Q: What sequence folds into this?
């Protein structure tokens, strides 16, 4: 069993930056693919970025060049650095861990981009 706790969301103006963190419990963090998803009101949850156990990232086209995902296996933590934020980035952001048949979600953190 793994528990994921997100932090770092908030209100930011367009063009601003935020850094999300996701702290994971458990001793098998290293073996999981970690991801960030988001869900805006009235829309389906979508993948924002993911990073493999070996550190290879991939991004949704909408965030390429603006967001950076990283992980610190020693701290059981995955990060999402979000720069040049746009109003359309407003959503609840969820941390996800996938490994084998396991799939875990955090409770989500709200990101609002507005002037």
A:
């Amino acid at each position: 069993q793994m528990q994921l706790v997100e932090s770092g969301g908030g209100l930011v103006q367009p063009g601003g930056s935020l850094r999300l963190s996701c702290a994971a419990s458990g001793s098998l963090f290293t073996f999981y693919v970690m991801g960030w998803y988001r869900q805006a009101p009235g829309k389906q949850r979508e993948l924002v970025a993911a990073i493999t156990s070996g550190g290879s990232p991939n991004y949704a086209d909408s965030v390429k060049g603006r967001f950076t995902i990283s992980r610190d296996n020693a701290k059981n933590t995955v990060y999402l650095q979000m720069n040049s934020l746009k109003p359309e980035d407003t959503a609840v952001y969820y941390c996800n861990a996938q490994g084998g048949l396991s799939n875990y979600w955090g409770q989500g953190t709200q990101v609002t981009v507005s002037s």
Observations:
- The chain has no helices and eleven strands.
- The chain has a mean pLDDT of 96.
